[in-house]
């Protein structure tokens, strides 16, 4: 079996030598931080106009991650491209000829890309939090308050997990276009809409993004949201299960199908 | 050494590769010949562990591909031109392959220079011509300095200079004692490169023979005759102990005789001849006949194909769309 560090090095070279890595991750950071900052400034300016239930459950941490809904799409694109370009370029044949053990190839790729997504996610999360608090003025909180650090680190984990989930799904579908066509509308529209529809939201709250983003809240029923039957870590756990299932599925497909 | 034992691949109900068993030996260039769709690429992908055989095995120097610790050091392959990331520089494409098999980085520069891409190492393959892409693929195959090399249609897209270069490269690699396995759908190409020949059609093994033997078997000469008096001519030749076969458009063909012999017999009877010529069936023709029943996609030209081109060049290119015809020279044994 090829040396694990050799394969990791190779996958790191693959990631750092394509321009899509920089633009997807930079977009994830800039969009999340930018949109969050805008909404924080807006909330601060219009705080008194908010409906009372929202004022009572106002969550300065959650609001400082408001841009994540949009920024996560760039993470999805990153995850899809990391795996999908192997197929679209035909590189997969060279890659598997060089590293015939499917598990070694796929999980090295996922480890490297996942770690990078997590690091960028953490940077995004901290930047988004501190900039947001600075703009929230008197409604802000500090990193030392209860649950705040958990939520901020959780934001980084959430972004890393979104990227990993996308990689797993792409490994199953073996196509960049197909994966983007399913994942982007799912996270941007389907999940968001279903989460707002009575009855459907009972199911939608177990979707990976809905469950995982629970970790971003520091106030019970933040922003007048529905109470969830799970806590922040359990929510993240549900997301981890989704990710594990996607990655396992991706591995099984890679192992079974012809390249 | 590559060993195939009962290698079979089915896609649904279609059998792409059908119980192939043969060995590819070191020190020579082995040509892998078959019409388009014969299963050549599928066979080569199975050799590399990319496709899973339905049954049977392939071993590379005695091992299954997945058992090779650092396969690029054992076997290198040029599969399709497009097996590189178009947005990553040629150098970096090779670097990630090298790193995964712990091949020293300096080797990347070496192979790029070897294939003549040293000057464009930092450029992205998306701007490459087909020939440059092919050279990059060959560079990737040579990265690990492997003992076994596979080339799937290596001359595709290359200019004449490039084709010449690839031929010499393969011969040189074989002369170093390496195992070289090269596929093509062109007999003429194989005749110039290969020492040994494996022919398949519809996934089945049709021939496993040395090139010299194949030429000896399949490029027999015959004499072609046209005359306004074919009946008399035929009688005269048969009386002279020659086997005569009827060709298209009233042409007569005489197997295993010299032009002198045939001309003398006709002259003795005072028969007018409009044509008397020595012909050699090309290897291309022999190949087409061998695989005639096994061609996946036919162009239907009806009878418009006309007489089959045959010239002094044993490996001459057959005319486009020429229909394979029956084995004229074996007709009357």
TrEMBL record, chain A:
Pfam families, A to Z = ABC2_membrane_4 (PF12730)
Keyword match Transmembrane: yes
Q: Which residues cross the membrane?
A: 21-42, 62-84, 105-131, 151-170, 177-197, 233-254
Q: What keywords are annotated for this sequence in UniProt?
A: Membrane, Transmembrane, Transmembrane helix
Q: From which domain of life does this come?
A: Bacteria
**Record keywords: Cell membrane included?**
no
User: Record's PANTHER family?
Assistant: INTEGRAL MEMBRANE PROTEIN-RELATED (PTHR37305), MEMBRANE PROTEIN (PTHR37305:SF1)
Q: What protein does this entry describe?
A: ABC transporter permease
TrEMBL record, chain B:
Matching Pfam families: ABC_tran
* Database matches in CDD domains: ABC_BcrA_bacitracin_resist
Which one of the record's GO molecular function terms can you name? ATP binding
Task: Quote the InterPro entries the UniProt record gives.
Answer: AAA+_ATPase (IPR003593), ABC_transporter-like_ATP-bd (IPR003439), P-loop_NTPase (IPR027417)
Q: Where is the signal peptide?
A: none
Where composition is biased (Basic and acidic residues), the residues are 322-333
Q: Which UniProt keywords apply?
A: ATP-binding, Nucleotide-binding, Transport
Low complexity bias: where? 303-321
- Tell me which Gene3D superfamilies the record gives: P-loop containing nucleotide triphosphate hydrolases
Task: Please indicate which superkingdom the organism of origin belongs to.
Answer: Bacteria
- Return the PROSITE patterns for the record: ABC_TRANSPORTER_2
Annotated stretches, region: Disordered: 303-333
Q: Which family does it belong to?
A: Belongs to the ABC transporter superfamily.
Q: Which residues form the ABC transporter domain?
A: 2-227
Name this protein carries in UniProt = ABC transporter ATP-binding protein
Q: Which organism is it from?
A: Streptomyces lichenis
